[in-house]
Amino acid sequence: MDLFEKFRDRGPLGKFADVAEGYFIFPRLEGELGNRMTFNGKEVICWSINNYYGLANHPEVRKVDAQASKDWGLAYPMGARMMSGATKYHDQLEEELAEFVGKEKALLVNYGYQGIFSAIDCLVSRHDVIVYDAEAHACIVDGVRLHAGQRFAFEHNNIASLDKNLERATKIAEKTNGGILVISEGVFGMRGDQGKLREIVSLKGKYNFRLLVDDAHGFGMLGPTGAGTCEEQGVIDDVDIYFSTFAKSMASIGAFFAGEPYVMNHLKYNMRSQMFAKSVPMPIVMGALKRLELIRTLPELRERLWENVHYLQNGLKKAGMDIGNTNSCVTPVYMHGEVAEAMALVQDLRDNYSVFCSIVVYPVVPKGMILLRLIPTSVHTRQDIDESIAAFIVVKEKLESGIYKATAEKFMEGVH
Fold it and tell me: Which residues touch 285 (CB under 8 Å, ≥6 apart)?
């Protein structure tokens, strides 16, 4: 059999490429990153970018980004950090990140996705066991797949399921003389619910394990100072490895780990994705330093963000929308329908109501479910929110009345 023959069956998402690419999949948002952008030549209210604090276009941030690019270019430092890519500014950023999240040491990495899945590979051997939340992000799932030993998924945020799987893991670890790594998220990026970190760490009295938390959607947004979900839940000292990306609150590229020095040093000297990859470019490092400074020193950004979050989520609930049990900025709206109906609904939202939000369908969520995800930011206005809620009320009524079924049939004619 030809190796590539199986690619002709394009999978659950790829089969929609002919009718969806450029609009539903790989859409092109243009203009300044903000609450309103341009899509298909018209202005839309944008709920699909993780620019929580609006830092992407903050004048101080833009100034530092531009100056760092002018001073250093995009190439410096060249080479892997271990070989020729280290600078005092990389060290400074790590020190400030560690202090901010309440850990002894931090390690800067060049990408979030690549960083965490390669870190998982670095942290465990074939003798060890991984126990992870079933709804963990794809980067975690990919990291777990690299593991040559045993791995178990516990039901999402279900502590009884975690307890059961830890009991299984403990028996295996005793036989292999290995350890146990538990992985959860601070905030789950689709549903918006926080990981039950307090309940997870309470099991440390019963089982011997280490805990890794991916806090991409919590860092900067949660906790009294914005230090993240661990601060919000009071478990900073109980979480062994803290991870976050710069792609959310900091509106940039890059990521970091934080924890005990000997653990960070192990990652630093053994994580292959960093040992054999280019160091983070200087404009990203300098920009991250400025972004972190603003997050620490401008609490009004966080206050404004949460005012918008509460206004949006309360408004959606009053309008009869199902937003699940989110307790973060991530705002899902759940509806019921088939994939093609979801496409018709989203086209209606974008073309006729000028509302652009992410559409999530099977296989990311169960069949028959439509998840429309909104990411509120500090730069959204009350007008943006009011107009969007009004649009959601109308499209929900259309979906439930079957109006989108006819349009859905047209979409399916082009699917193969």
Answer: 68, 87, 89, 90, 93, 108, 254
Residues 312 and 238 both lie in one domain? no
Cα–Cα distance, 392 to 320 (Å, whole number)? 10
User: What are φ and ψ of residue 153, in 5° steps?
Assistant: -100, 130
* The predicted structure's pLDDT at residue 411: 62
Per residue in 265-301, pLDDT (tens digit) is 999 999 998 989 999 999 999 999 999 999 999 999 9
47 within 8 A of 358, measured Cβ to Cβ: yes
Q: What is the domain extent for residue 333?
A: 5-52+299-413
Q: Do 201 and 238 belong to one domain? A: yes
pTM for this predicted structure: 0.94
Of 254, 275, 297, which closes a domain?
Answer: 297
Condensed to tens digits (0 to 9), the pLDDT of residues 232-244 reads: 999 999 999 999 9
Label the pairing between strands 241-245 and 210-214. Answer: parallel
Q: How many domains does the chain have?
A: 2
Q: What is the dihedral of CA 88, 89, 94, 100, to 10 degrees?
A: 130
State which of 235, 266, 297 marks the end of a domain. 297
